[in-house]
What does this fold into?
Amino acid sequence: MDKLLEAAREYAKLINIDFIYTLENGIVLQVYFIPSFFYHLIGLQKLVDIPLVQKGPRNNPGYIFRNILRGKITLTDIQKSRHFSEIESRVKHFSQINMLVEFERIIVDFDSTLINSKMINADYILFKKSNDNMHLNLFLKTDDNNKQVPLTFISDRTDYYTHRQKMIEIVSITKVVRS
It folds into this structure.
């Protein structure tokens, strides 16, 4: 199956569900996903030489996501980009996103100075190892409604993003379907 389509289908399963995490320190987090987040999470903004995935007045991130689900934008289309290597690992591993929402620990108060990066302005990281031992990291940011939204998704061969960060145990996970 087309890995881009597979990733979009797995992501679509998360839409309209709030994931409520109760942490051992009493913090309660509410994570949600919407179609337009997929665009940035998978890294399509990096493919500046592929018109099919360029944002515009008639081509917003939600529309691009729907076109991927409809098969109008395929892995073959985006592989033509000279920048595809920058997102190849994301595309390969993104179909495992459902694993990331069911985990036992979370990074709280993510400290970007530990990785010498000011580019990632996240509050939390959901993380797990993939089936092929890649470290999958879903960075979350708190929005204006005090809910957590996906900021970016990065797969890495090492624990670079989670090493030395503050980890908290998760007491419970509840899924609430939004209407």
